[in-house]
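Today's session is about reading a structure prediction critically. Students often jump straight to the picture, but the first step is always the sequence itself: look for stretches that repeat, for charged clusters, for runs of hydrophobic residues. Only then move on to the predicted structure, which in these notes is written as discrete structure tokens rather than atom positions. Here is the chain we will use throughout the hour.
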Amino acid sequence: MYQPPHFREDRLEVQHALIRAHPLGMLVTMGRSGLLANPIPFVLDEAASPLGTLKAHLSRANPQWQDFDPGQEALVVFQGTEAYITPSWYETKRETGKVVPTWNYAVVQARGRMRAVEDPAWLMRQIGEMTGQQEAAHPEPWAVSDAPPAFVAAQLKGIVGIEIEIARIEGKWKVSQNRPDADRRGVAEGLRALSDDEPRRMAEMVEAKGAPGT
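Below is the predicted structure for this chain, in token form.
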């Protein structure tokens, strides 16, 4: 990933926070048929390895769990908050006119060797962790145990687990750190004036000059 120094985010706790907030990662692998990419929801096990271990499952019908080279690293891309930035928000536009549009974003890329897991006990733990993570905020959270055991057992036969021990991880927080203070203030004000939550989250990150944000 292209990494200008002022956008680089190397703090592992910040990278992990983005993964937890945006667990739907784009899984990219190289196999016999070339590159394969699928959006997959992941659970991050921070204690399983020094940089963390990613756990997920695929449909057994998905060829990615068989058509990958175990000798090559898999790549998982987690996209955080993003927003288009118009140069109309820059003070520099009024001063010189020498400005262009850009895009702000936070992203984490994790790499590591992938392995397929078919053990039913591992799969049961993984779907339990995943649903627990996502259901926690609901007033009446659903649990795997809410479904009939025979139904769950049948569903498990249709999936395959994947596990990636992270060997390399990079974070990039491109949030207008390279702009003058007046331009950053204009970007934050412009984003806050929009009606969506996503631009407002980006405004907070711009004001913090790249401090933790998702």
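Discussion point for the tutorial: Helices lie at 12-21, 91-95, 120-135, 149-156, 181-192, 197-207.
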